[in-house]
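Quick check before the chapter quiz. The format below is the same one you will see on the exam, so make sure you can read both the input and the output lines.
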Amino acid sequence: MVAEHTQEALTPAKYIAHHLGFNVQNVGDAGGFWRINIDTLFTSIFLGFLVIGLIWWVARKAQAGVPSKTQAFVEIIFEFVDEQAKSMFHGDRHAFIAPAALTVFLWVLAMNMMSFLPVDYVANVVELIAGHEAHWRPVPTSDINTTFALALSVWILMIFFSIKVKGFGGLIHEIFYSPFGGPKFFKPKSVLGFIGLIVSPLLLLANFMFNMIEYISKPLSHSLRLFGNLYAGEVIFLLLGMLAGSSILGMVGAALLGAAWSVFHLLVVPLQAFIFMMMTVVYLSMAHESH
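Here is the expected output.
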């Protein structure tokens, strides 16, 4: 008797689509806009608490004398981030900027480091816990929702500090009067001065357009850079895995290419966390300055 249901062949495209998919929970109607990527949400929250717990554990055992290796390593990270904040921000960085930079750096670094875990092994662990076939995407920063949410949070903080430092009127004035200045209301004494009086209000529109482009591009560039690098790394690891399963020659090639890419990825993971942290410090520092 021929089986009614035959197992569908797993093509390379389906293999990649499977591993790049999310466990999605719809909010409201099934076809609604609001959806929650369960993998991203729980992994990022877990890593956030894990980083907090590790820092608390090290701080609890910190001693003023000769520090342990773990304490010395954590102090190096603290001093490194503090020096970066000091070079960019000239106010009281310890009030908010330096702690925010440290939080962003450690959290993004922890989420990036999840790309070191083999995706198939992560799925096996999830299946063991769930008791049925399951899939779990372990890298939150390869999800555009995560990186854009982080970038948007920094953007909102930038607007908040701009209003706090300059006032709402100061922010509006900066949007319409920077970088080209605004109209000069004076009594024209010549035809050229009369033309300047008519044309100068157009500077308000030009300033507004330039500033809106800047304000919109900041969260986009901030989020897409991190997402693109981690997503590309995830895809390359999947391609190398498929190459390894193609043949003996493919397995050898995948081992060589995988070793080279792993070394490069070891640099990409902390570098992208550092870049995201530095852009956060730069944006928040710019919010405290006036043109």
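If your answer matched, good. The chain is about 70% helix and 0% strand.
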